[in-house]
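[09:14] KT: can someone run the structure on this one? pasting the chain below
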Amino acid sequence: MSDKRINESFQIAKIKNTKQRTAILTILANVGKPLTVSDIYKEMQALKIDVNLSTIYRSLDIMSNKGLITKISNLQDNKAMYEINHGIHHHYLYCVGCEKILTIEHCPLIDYENQLYVSTGYKIIGHKLNVFGYCPSCQKKAKNDF
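[09:31] RB: done, structure tokens below
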């Protein structure tokens, strides 16, 4: 994500552009996968950007509320993860062994949402789906341990 695009994103969202916020968006854009606050903090330290965790939490909260990033709740370990909001709806498959994350591009719940609307009259405005399991590598390791 270019500096120009980041500046435009902040202007459109009416968010003050700070060095820390720019760094957070750049990190999320370059990594291309959801990150925890701890992951973001480590990346910022590696880039020699002086920041504390509370600033990261506040910045993520503001950017999430304004739609620049998406907050993903990981119910497995109660850690939130964040990614750039590309406006594309998808879900994730989490490996509880190695913590690898796989994006599920197709949403299997769209038809179900329509069925719920027909049967209940509820206008569905969104949903969350987190799938947890063990990736093939972790399954293989576990098999060799027994």
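[09:33] KT: thanks! The first strand starts at residue 69 and ends at 74.
[09:34] RB: yep, looked fine to me
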